[in-house]
């Protein structure tokens, strides 16, 4: 029997490099920095929101999110508008161009991932998702 935490540590040892490869692939294929992608995904899921709220949702610093929003705005993918609930914290929202760009990037990723998925057992993928979701929920409930 292995030391407690050894198998889970091995999971994180695989996840780190896998995540970094995925980030590089997204940036190289779509020409979209990972922070911008995270902002677009979050806005697509929650609708117009503030930079601080995006930071909390993404578990990223407000400053990093602001730089990503500024980058996305410079590309025409998001815009800001007045926030009726707060005078200084504007709302950030996707533009039509941002929605289309995100759709195109997601479609390309799904095509690429579809080819990889064919080589994997669907039951293994379901088990992987259950474990990763449980870890995510646990780490969200008990941040270190």
- What is the total number of structural domains? 1
* Overall shape: globular
- The top-level CATH class is Mainly Alpha
Order of helices and strands: HHHHEEHH
CATH third-tier fold name? Arc Repressor Mutant, subunit A
Report the structural category.
Answer: mainly alpha
Protein name: MarR family winged helix-turn-helix transcriptional regulator
Domain HTH marR-type: 25-125
Pfam family, one: MarR_2
List keywords for this structure.
144 residues, mainly alpha, 70% helix, Arc Repressor Mutant, subunit A, 6 helices
What does the model show?
By secondary structure, the chain is mainly alpha-helical. It has one domain: Winged helix-like DNA-binding domain superfamily/Winged helix DNA-binding domain (Arc Repressor Mutant, subunit A), CATH 1.10.10.10. 70% of the residues lie in helices and 10% in strands. The chain is built from six helices and two strands. It has helices spanning 6-30, 34-46, 51-58, 62-74, 96-117, 122-141, and strands at 78-83, 86-94. A two-stranded antiparallel ribbon has the order 1-2. Helix 2 (34-46) packs across helix 4 and helix 3 (51-58) packs across helix 4 (62-74).
């Amino acid at each position: 029997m292995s030391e407690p935490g050894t198998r889970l540590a091995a999971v994180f040892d695989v996840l780190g490099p896998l995540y970094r490869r995925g980030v590089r692939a997204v940036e190289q294929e779509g020409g979209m920095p990972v922070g911008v992608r995270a902002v677009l995904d979050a806005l697509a899921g929650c609708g117009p929101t503030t930079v601080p709220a995006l930071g909390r949702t993404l578990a990223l610093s407000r400053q990093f999110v602001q730089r990503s929003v500024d980058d996305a705005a410079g590309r025409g993918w998001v815009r800001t508008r007045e926030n009726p609930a707060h005078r200084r914290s504007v709302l950030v929202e996707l533009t039509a161009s941002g929605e289309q760009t995100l759709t195109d990037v997601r479609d390309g990723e799904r095509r690429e991932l579809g080819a990889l998925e064919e080589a994997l057992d669907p039951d293994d993928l379901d088990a992987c998702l259950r474990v990763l979701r449980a870890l995510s929920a646990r780490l969200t409930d008990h941040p270190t």
